């Protein structure tokens, strides 16, 4: 049995600006090019000659190179999480987050190699012990005390990012500790300015490093701070009503100003902060659970932690702050033909939003709910079917893990305004 949705008024949808496919390739090439530039600057400043000389000078030269690579990757890591719109649309935040993690660990090990090689190189040149040389560098070299504090902050971020450690931390605590990475980057800059042999060794080095630091700082200020401030000032989202959909399941409806100008698409998510008391500074990612119509937004939250449990107690009139929208699970990538949407648990909420936006014909959309399967992943022949199309979270089975359904729906014709 299948169910057919009756046509309803279609929402006005702001067409998303497509990101050219070549841009994604160009971004990857550009990231690799920065490492080549850093290496070329090191070679131009006598790095190869110092390595050829051998001994303590070669160890120090390798230490300088690993330090330059670590600094470059650290700045690229900042750019990956700067919420740059064109990067978000090209790659999606989940992929950027993976690259951010890999880049961060690589940068950390290069930084560790930099410290070890520089200390042993200087100790060999001065004919002193490594620990004594390290102590002397920290207390007598300009900027090194700040660099040590920055290194400690980065070590804390890396340790808490290891999967085993992260499982033991609340998300809010981990996120707060993770912000210390910005402090680590900032504290390393004076050290590079005052004692970095390659930072100001030539006009080309000076231009490159100041440019990449300026780009990173500008991206963070613009997209992590500026854009959210302007967007929240313009739209002024407030909670209009809170609906209990089921045990531990709550939908929040929000209204605001000029929501038809908010570039949100079905399938995307925002980082949400509700000004309802202590703890409002901690953002939580919630997907839109209804197609944005230009006059209200809806999110549906499952009680799974401290932040999500507070959603049920929100009162109408509570202000909401947002960052986003993020995500590439949108109708933009659909090129026509049948549509199959598969979700589990609270993960079905963005799919509910997509039902009202995807351009598919009558009987061409299928929404299987999770249920028992036979070996080989095939659905059982006598699967219980959904008798009515789910218009909202309350329409879903109370225990979807024991049911399997297929929905063939007919949405309203999509119009673009």
UniProtKB/TrEMBL annotation:
Q: Which UniProt keywords apply?
A: 2Fe-2S, FAD, Flavoprotein, Iron, Iron-sulfur, Membrane, Metal-binding, Oxidoreductase, Transmembrane, Transmembrane helix
Its recorded name reads: Ferric reductase-like transmembrane domain-containing protein
The record, for Pfam families, names: Ferric_reduct
| Transmembrane segment boundaries | 22-42, 62-82, 102-124, 144-165, 177-195, 207-226
Q: Which PROSITE patterns match?
A: FAD_FR
Q: What is its main location?
A: membrane
Q: Which residues form the FAD-binding FR-type domain?
A: 232-332
Q: Where is this region: Disordered?
A: 387-417
Q: Where in the cell is it found?
A: Membrane
Tell me the InterPro entries matching this sequence: FAD-bd_FR_type, Fe3_Rdtase_TM_dom, FNR_nucleotide-bd, MRET, Riboflavin_synthase-like_b-brl
Domain of life, per the record?
A: Bacteria
Q: Which cofactor does it need?
A: FAD
Q: Which SUPFAM superfamilies match?
A: Ferredoxin reductase-like, C-terminal NADP-linked domain, Riboflavin synthase domain-like
Membrane topology, record value? Multi-pass membrane protein
């Amino acid at each position: 049995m299948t169910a057919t949705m009756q046509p309803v008024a279609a929402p006005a949808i702001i067409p998303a600006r497509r990101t050219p496919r070549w841009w994604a390739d160009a971004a990857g090439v550009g990231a690799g090019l920065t490492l080549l530039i850093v290496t070329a600057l090191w070679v131009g400043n006598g790095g190869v000659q110092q390595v050829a000389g051998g001994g303590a000078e070669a160890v120090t030269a390798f230490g300088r190179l690993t330090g330059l690579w670590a600094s470059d990757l650290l700045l690229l890591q900042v750019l990956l999480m700067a919420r740059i719109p064109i990067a978000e649309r090209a790659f999606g935040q989940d992929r950027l987050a993976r690259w951010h993690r890999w880049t961060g660990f690589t940068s950390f090990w290069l930084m560790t190699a930099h410290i070890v090689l520089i200390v042993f190189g200087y100790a060999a040149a001065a004919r002193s012990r490594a620990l004594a040389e390290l102590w002397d560098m920290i207390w007598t070299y300009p900027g090194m005390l700040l660099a040590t504090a920055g290194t400690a902050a980065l070590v804390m971020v890396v340790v808490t990012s290891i999967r085993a450690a992260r499982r033991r931390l609340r998300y809010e605590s981990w996120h707060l500790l993770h912000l210390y990475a910005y402090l680590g980057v900032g504290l390393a800059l004076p050290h590079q300015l005052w004692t970095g042999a390659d930072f100001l060794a030539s006009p080309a080095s000076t231009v490159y490093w100041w440019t990449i630091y300026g780009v990173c700082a500008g991206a963070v200020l613009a997209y992590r701070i500026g854009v959210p401030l302007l967007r929240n000032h313009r739209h002024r989202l407030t909670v209009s009503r809170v609906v209990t959909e089921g045990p531990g399941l709550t939908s929040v409806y929000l209204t605001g100003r000029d929501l038809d100008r908010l570039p949100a698409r079905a399938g995307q998510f925002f980082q949400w902060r509700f000004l309802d008391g202590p703890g409002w500074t901690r953002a939580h990612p919630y997907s839109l659970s209804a197609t944005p119509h230009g006059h209200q937004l809806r999110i549906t939250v499952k009680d799974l932690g401290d932040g999500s449990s507070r959603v049920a107690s929100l009162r109408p009139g509570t202000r909401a702050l947002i960052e986003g929208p993020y995500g590439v699970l949108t109708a933009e990538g659909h090129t026509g033909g049948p549509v199959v949407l598969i979700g589990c648990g609270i993960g079905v909420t963005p799919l509910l939003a997509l039902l009202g936006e995807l351009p598919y014909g009558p009987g061409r959309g299928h929404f299987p709910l999770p249920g028992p399967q036979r070996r080989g992943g095939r659905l059982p022949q006598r699967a219980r079917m959904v008798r009515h199309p789910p218009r909202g979270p309350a329409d879903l089975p109370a225990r979807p893990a024991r049911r399997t359904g297929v929905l063939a729906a007919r949405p309203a014709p999509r119009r673009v305004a």
